[in-house]
């Protein structure tokens, strides 16, 4: 159905363009080089025959595939991001194609002795006999999320070439800066004009996600008092000890390394301390909204308590919400998950539905009025040198997109 070499060529044409985003930048896109791929994608959408192809001032690329049925079908969308993670270099990517994978170690880089081994990454074994695309061991691959773009582009092309497949209006959008948490920030939901959408940004084949963390960040500042240590009795206040009290008063087992599934946590991400001042950065995560609020309150109460033990305010806290669990927005329209699930089963994929221990652009979009579950794009080991993607998974994801389009039109038939 979907031609393998065509998918490989398309994917390679995207990953070989450096699109690393930069959290320190305040522009959109955060890096100028993201324009290169954004423009390339715009051209390609036009070339395959999409309508209303446009790129805005922030490099968001949008296009429409008009309906080919007479009855009314809600417009649905597919979204993926073209930036790659600043966690690891995305320049000079040299993808390697491993055909008919034999289940053994893959030498990514002979000179540097970098090996992708099923001993560490046992998921590899489920792709025995398939074609894998890997890095050369010195960069990330960028399957996150150029696999998603490959799949959306290929599905649109397929639908255009196969008018016998009936579908309603389909919207696509490729965004910058997802990896720095801003992929949805300048997303024009009204202009996009879809009733709901799917991000093609999950990992292994079968993944379907509509639940993610509620997320907040906390910045804590502790004030101390510096005095010559030889004459400090009764005078010095060491902010690092107060910070230590704060840290130790939070539940020690509610941290990322002790939790899984739908268990929430406090995560101390940074300490910066001197006698005079100590700063702590935390992130707070919980799928459950009530527990999430309770976690924030626990921190605020702790700050009050510590302050009450001193004759003046020694510790201050600022908590900012970052994103929320999209479940709240998706549950009232559960048919959008059901359609994706049904589409997977129709192309012989067992859906893996589980809560994301993180966030997605889809969670922000859901709260901006565009309910947006996440579907697998097929890659593994994102944000590092061991990233890889099976071509067969990209083909399956492409088929899922085509099926979702087809099923949606069918569901709304009079
Ligand atoms: Zn991604």
TrEMBL record:
Zn(2+) 1 binds at residues 81, 144, 201. It catalyses: Release of the N-terminal residue from a tripeptide. GO terms for biological process: peptide catabolic process; proteolysis. It comes from the Bacteria. Residues 210-309 form the Peptidase M20 dimerisation domain. Its cofactor is Zn(2+). GO terms for molecular function: metallopeptidase activity; tripeptide aminopeptidase activity; zinc ion binding. GO terms for cellular component: cytosol. The active site is at residues 83, 178. Its main location: cytoplasm. Keywords: Aminopeptidase, Cytoplasm, Hydrolase, Metal-binding, Metalloprotease, Protease, Zinc. Coiled coil: none annotated. Binds 2 Zn(2+) ions per subunit. It is found in: Cytoplasm. Zn(2+) 2 binds at residues 144, 179, 383. InterPro entries: ArgE/DapE_CS (IPR001261), Bact_exopeptidase_dim_dom (IPR036264), Peptidase_M20 (IPR002933), Peptidase_M20_dimer (IPR011650), Peptidase_M20B (IPR010161). It is an enzyme of class 3 (hydrolase). CDD domains: M20_peptT (cd03892). Its EC number is 3.4.11.4. The keyword Manganese does not apply. The keyword Metal-binding applies. Belongs to the peptidase M20B family. Cleaves the N-terminal amino acid of tripeptides. This is Peptidase T. The lineage of its organism: Bacteria, Pseudomonadati, Bacteroidota, Flavobacteriia, Flavobacteriales.
């Amino acid at each position: 159905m979907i031609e393998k070499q065509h998918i490989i060529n398309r994917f390679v044409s995207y990953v070989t363009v450096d699109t690393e985003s930069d959290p320190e930048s305040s522009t959109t896109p955060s890096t100028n080089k993201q324009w290169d791929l954004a423009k390339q994608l715009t051209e390609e959408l036009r070339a395959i025959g999409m309508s209303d192809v446009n790129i805005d001032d922030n490099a968001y690329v949008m296009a429409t595939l008009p309906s080919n049925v007479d009855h009314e079908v809600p417009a649905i969308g597919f979204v993926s991001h073209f930036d790659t993670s600043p966690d690891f270099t995305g320049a000079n990517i040299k993808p390697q194609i491993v055909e008919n994978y034999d289940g053994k170690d893959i030498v990514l880089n002979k000179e540097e002795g970098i090996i992708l081994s099923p001993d560490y990454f046992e998921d590899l074994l489920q792709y025995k006999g398939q074609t894998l695309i890997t890095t050369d061991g010195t960069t990330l691959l960028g399957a996150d999320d150029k696999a998603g773009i490959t799949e959306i582009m290929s599905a649109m092309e397929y639908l255009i070439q196969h008018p016998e497949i009936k579908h309603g209006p389909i919207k696509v959008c490729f965004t910058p800066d997802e990896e720095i948490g801003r992929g949805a920030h300048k997303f024009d939901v009204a202009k996009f004009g879809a009733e709901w959408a799917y991000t093609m940004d999950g990992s292994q084949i079968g993944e379907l996600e509509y639940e993610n963390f509620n997320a907040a960040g906390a910045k804590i500042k502790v004030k101390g008092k510096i005095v010559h240590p030889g004459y400090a009795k009764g005078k010095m206040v060491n902010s690092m000890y107060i910070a230590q009290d704060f840290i130790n008063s939070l539940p020690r087992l509610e941290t990322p390394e002790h939790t899984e599934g739908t268990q929430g946590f406090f995560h101390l991400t940074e300490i910066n301390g001197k006698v005079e001042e100590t700063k702590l950065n935390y992130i707070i995560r919980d799928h459950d909204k009530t527990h999430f609020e309770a976690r924030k309150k626990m921190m605020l109460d702790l700050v009050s308590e510590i302050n009450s033990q001193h004759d003046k305010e020694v510790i201050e806290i600022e908590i900012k919400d970052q994103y929320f669990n999209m479940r709240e927005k998706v549950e009232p329209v559960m048919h959008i998950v059901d359609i994706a699930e049904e589409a997977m089963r129709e192309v012989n994929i067992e859906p893996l539905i589980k809560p994301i221990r993180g966030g997605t652009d889809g969670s922000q979009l859901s709260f901006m009025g565009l309910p947006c579950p996440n579907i697998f794009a097929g890659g593994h080991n994102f944000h590092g040198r061991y990233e890889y993607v099976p071509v067969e998974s990209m083909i399956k994801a492409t088929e899922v997109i085509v099926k979702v389009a087809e099923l949606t039109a069918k569901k709304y038939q009079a």
